[in-house]
Design the sequence.
C-alpha cells in the first residue's frame, strides 16, 4: 500500500523522501502507518518497476534526491485507484489487547483504556486543527470547493474525524463499564 500512497502523492508533484514523509504525516498517516523505514524500500521497488524516476538536485553543497512519477507509474496508480474496494478486517492492536484483558488486573485495565482515550483525543484535536486550517485556506473559494482532489481529501478527513469520534465514544462507554464492574 505504501507504494500506492507514494504514487498518489507524486501525482501532486515531485518530492524528496523527506517531503513524502511529511505529506504522509499530515494526510494518509492518520489511517496508514508511514515511516522512513517503509518509504525507502517502497521507493526502491517503484524505481525498479519504472514507476518512479529519481533525479539529484544540488541545494548549496548538498545533493537532494527528488522523486517524480513516470507515465507507467501514473498508469499503474490509476489502474489501482479504479479497482473495486475490498473490505478489510480492522487491525487494531487495542482490540487484540482487549481480547486478552481477562489476564490483566482491573486497575491496569483502567489505566490502559484511559491512556488510549487520551491518545484518541490528541489525534482528534490534531484533525480538528487540520480541518480548521483547511476551512480558512479554502474559505469561500468556489474553485477550490469544486476541485475533485480537494473534495476527496476533505471527505477522507471527515471520515477520519468520524472514526476517531466513534472510538472516543466507544472507549468512554467501555471505561465506564469497567468502572461499574469494579464497583460491583
Sequence:
Amino acid at each position: 500500500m505504501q507504494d500506492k500512497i507514494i504514487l498518489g502523492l507524486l501525482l501532486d508533484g515531485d518530492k524528496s523522501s523527506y517531503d513524502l514523509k511529511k505529506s504522509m504525516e499530515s494526510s494518509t498517516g492518520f489511517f496508514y502507518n508511514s515511516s522512513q523505514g517503509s518509504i525507502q524500500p517502497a521507493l526502491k521497488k517503484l524505481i525498479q518497476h519504472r514507476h518512479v524516476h529519481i533525479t539529484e538536485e544540488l541545494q548549496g553543497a548538498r545533493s537532494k534526491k527528488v522523486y517524480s512519477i513516470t507515465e507507467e507509474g501514473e498508469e499503474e496508480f490509476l489502474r489501482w485507484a479504479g479497482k473495486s474496494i475490498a473490505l478489510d478486517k480492522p487491525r487494531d492492536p487495542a482490540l487484540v489487547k482487549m481480547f486478552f484483558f481477562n489476564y490483566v488486573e482491573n486497575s491496569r485495565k483502567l489505566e490502559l483504556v484511559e491512556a488510549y482515550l487520551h491518545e484518541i483525543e490528541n489525534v482528534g484535536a490534531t484533525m480538528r486543527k487540520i480541518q480548521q486550517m483547511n476551512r480558512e485556506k479554502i474559505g469561500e473559494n468556489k474553485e477550490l470547493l469544486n476541485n475533485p482532489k480537494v473534495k476527496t481529501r476533505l471527505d477522507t478527513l471527515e471520515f477520519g474525524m468520524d472514526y476517531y469520534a466513534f472510538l472516543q465514544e466507544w472507549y468512554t462507554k467501555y471505561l465506564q463499564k469497567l468502572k461499574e464492574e469494579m464497583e460491583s
